[in-house]
User: Fold this.
Amino acid sequence: MSLQPLRWMRHHIQRANVVSTTRIYMSFLNEGTDCWRPANAKEHGKGVFEILGIKPAGEEWQFSPGMRVRCRPKQFADGSTALTAYELVANPP
Assistant:
């Protein structure tokens, strides 16, 4: 077996742009009660996350995909704790 395919694969895996994501929760707007949607986000450090993905049609989120937000832990009624977006952070120039 030739080593060429293995070298090619190793080279491309090392060059791959792998993004590690964190699940954060977004608050719905205009729901009447507290409602939360999980969303994937990329961490930028110091509690700042960039919201990834697409907002489902018909949902009003507090923040939109592409925005950078500050997150903090929140304890939900069921006793679980998760990161929730609470503040918009200016994108770097």
About this structure: The two ends are 50 Å apart (CA to CA).
